[in-house]
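Q: I'm writing a short methods note and want an example of a predicted protein-small molecule complex. Could you take the sequence and the SMILES for zinc ion and return the bound structure as tokens? Please keep the output block clean; save any remarks for afterwards.
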Amino acid sequence: MKKTHGRAEHYNALTISRLHKSGVLEHGYIGGWQWDNGKASIGIKTIKQQLILNYTSKGKPFNYPVQIVTTPCNYGGVRYWFECPNCHKRVGKLYIAENLMFECRKCQNLNYATQQNDKLGSVTTVLCRLRNRLNWEYENALPLPIYKQIKPKGMHETTFQRLVARHEYIEWKRNKICVQNFKAFAKRYGLESELLD
Ligand SMILES: [Zn+2]
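A: Understood, no commentary inside the block.
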């Protein structure tokens, strides 16, 4: 899948440093968060290292927990991060989009692909999600060469083996759909005999 830029800017984003400066990350905080345009706002409740985001959309109430993580700074103190509720990576920003969930930019772009809602699209999304989780570099959903399939630092060996096996299966499934699509295409245009060459 190609990287897309600029899309996330259209969404309302939560920025960890701004929440921190405003005291939202302190345990016991109850209040709201409004975006600059004043058109959108959410409620936030902070319980220990967790933010509970409260909002209503299309008449449906959301109670969305987001985990806060900290890492030590070189000069003392800590740095705050969101843990993306979908891919569990540490990020400084979360975006809300059409699916009404707060997720990192990478996940939002993948969700956009899911909305296309075709077989190939959804299997591709699963594939890219796995690669994100494995921290593997990729430009698109084509099969990855084996030398790119390195175990991420700190990942447990059994987790890694499980994800690699799943990745292999999903990649195979995706290739199969591609071949099916291609065969259907050839049939539609009367090119089946060309495939046998
Ligand atoms: Zn994410």
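A: Remarks, as requested: Residues 1-10 have pLDDT under 50 and may be disordered. The chain has two domains: 8-108, 118-195.
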